[in-house]
Amino acid sequence: MRFERTVLPGVGLCQRFATTNGQWASVISHPGGRRDIVIYHPEDGDTALGTLVLDQAEAQAVAAVLNQAVTVDHLAELERQLPGVTVVRIPVAVDSVGDGKRWRDTGLSGRPLSLLAVVRAGRVVPTPGDDFVLLAGDEVAVAGTEAATTTAADVLAGH
Questions:
Q1: For the segment 82-128, what is each residue's pLDDT rounded down to a tens digit?
Q2: pLDDT band, residue 73 (cuts 50/70/90)
Q3: Residue at which a domain ends, from 66, 94, 119
Q4: Same domain, 40 and 75
Q5: Side-chain half-sphere of 37: how many Cα atoms within 13 Å?
Q6: Is the whole model's pTM more than 0.70, yes or no?
Q7: Nearest by Cα to 24 from 33, 13, 14, 9
Q8: Which of 148, 142, 152 is nearest to 96 (CA)?
């Protein structure tokens, strides 16, 4: 799945995507944590059929259910300033490659990817380094190429 990311000045970050069935949707991340999920008309990709508005807690619950990488709204500015760099937050799943392993042992440290921070139990550990041990429930913030961040999401989600 390919995401088209667009910074919407004064609004947030829009991540538009199409499913394998050709259905178009987008997730708009607002600075306050709100997320809008927009579903588009199948014959007119610019016409919204409806919008689901989620507060920050609801968005986190949906993200956990979907077990997907969630782009962080406050990192959107960094992404905008560095064209070609994708910044994402990825939950570490139970029994994934990362659960209970040092970052260097996940197989991700040699990729075009930087470990920016780990959020554990609501506490942020900035630039934790290659020896940092990840645990299920951690959220890992990484920056890198789109391919590298997608691989990181797959590995840490246990796919």
A1: 777 888 889 999 989 899 999 999 998 778 898 888 888 877 788 88
A2: very low
A3: 66
A4: no
A5: 10
A6: no
A7: 14
A8: 152
